[in-house]
Q: What sequence folds into this?
């Protein structure tokens, strides 16, 4: 890209401003269209989504175990946050644990080999 001359600067700034306005417009339009996962749920809907009873949901809210939004006495949940919460509790399979252990052992073995080679042991 060629450097701009002083005379070209106003046109370049104008183009840049137009592009920024277009980007801002796209972002605002995208932000205004809620996706399915940003759906706001009441406690009954959250209980149905999680396949839990309403009293269980209340208990989890009380113990601060579940993401929640409170407005007055009402509780609201974002579907995307509940799905993320579910995913965060995923347990690894034995194969995944074994693979991580092998990678960790291989890493430490390489690290130990580098140390012994550099120290002359």
A:
């Amino acid at each position: 890209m060629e450097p701009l001359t002083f005379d070209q600067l106003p046109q370049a700034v104008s183009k840049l401003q137009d592009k920024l306005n277009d980007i801002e417009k796209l972002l605002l339009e995208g932000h205004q269209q809620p996706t399915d996962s940003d759906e706001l749920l009441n406690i009954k809907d959250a209980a149905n989504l999680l396949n839990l009873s309403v009293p269980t949901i209340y208990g989890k809210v009380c113990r601060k175990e579940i993401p929640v939004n409170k407005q007055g006495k009402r509780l609201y949940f974002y579907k995307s946050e509940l799905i993320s919460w579910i995913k965060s509790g995923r347990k690894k399979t034995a194969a995944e644990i074994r693979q991580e252990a092998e990678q960790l052992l291989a890493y430490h073995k390489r690290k130990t080999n580098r140390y012994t080679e550099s120290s002359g042991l």
Strands lie at 40-41, 69-71, 74-78. The two ends are 55 Å apart (CA to CA). The first helix runs from residue 9 to 32. The longest strand covers residues 74-78.
